[in-house]
Amino acid sequence: MKHVALALMLGASPVLADGCPEAPDHSEALAALFDELALARTDMEARVISNRFWEFWADAPDEPSQAMLDEGMRARAAFDFLRAIERFDKLVAYCPFYAEGYNQRAFVNFLREDYEAALPDLDRTLEINPEHVGALSGKALTLLALGREEEGQAALRAALALNPWLSERFLLKEEPGQKL
After folding, report:
1. Of 122, 140, 150, 157, which sits 20 to 30 A from 129 (CA to CA)?
2. Can you give the C-alpha Rg of the chain in angstroms?
């Protein structure tokens, strides 16, 4: 705690015990994006706004963590899932309080169809950032893939409460006595 207080007194970002600084606080910018989404009139307009969330979620705490995130995402895009997992493993070990490291590792496991491995990372992402729409919709898809329909529908409803324009909205099923 003394190190955090000293860092704050010196005007530096507080550094966590493992050497990774706190993730940047983008809460105001994210809130503004949610406000914009609420005013969106078309699917395309909402998609443009939704894509802007990733600018903030993918803003890692420092240069080393950004490099790990970027390398992992490039490996994932190239379908080099082993390399991607290795980079995201390093990232979450270095920055255990940075949500996107867990979310990206979960995405790789989802793509590998290792849904059981994806769930704990999605849960950790949502512990850190409860409004991470990507993780919420990813959790819904993961639970549905596992055949856990009721839980998947609940996660999907939570994601749609934040962003009603998600493409996954078409997977939502009516609850008894409710019209979609």
Report:
1. 150
2. 18
Per DSSP, the three-state class of 129 is: coil
Q: For 95-144, how does the pLDDT look when each residue is reduced to its tens digit (9 = 90+)?
A: 999 999 999 999 999 999 999 999 999 999 999 999 999 999 999 999 99
CB environment 138-152: b (16+ within 10 A), e (fewer): bbbbbbbeeebeebb
The secondary structure of residue 21, as a DSSP letter, is: B
Distances in Å between the Cα of 123 and the Cα atoms of 109, 142, 176 are: 14, 11, 28
Q: Cβ neighbours of residue 142 under 8 Å, at least 6 residues apart?
A: 106, 110, 115, 118, 119, 122, 152
79: left (phi over 0), alpha (psi -120 to 50) or beta: left
Residue 57 burial (10 A CB sphere; 0-12, 13-18, 19+): buried
Question: Do residues 83 and 75 make contact, with C-beta atoms less than 8 angstroms apart?
Answer: yes
In 25-54, which positions are buried (b, 16+ CB within 10 angstroms) versus exposed (e)? Answer: ebeeebeebeeebeebeeeeebeebbeebe
pTM: 0.85
CA separation for the pair 66, 139 (Å, rounded)? 24
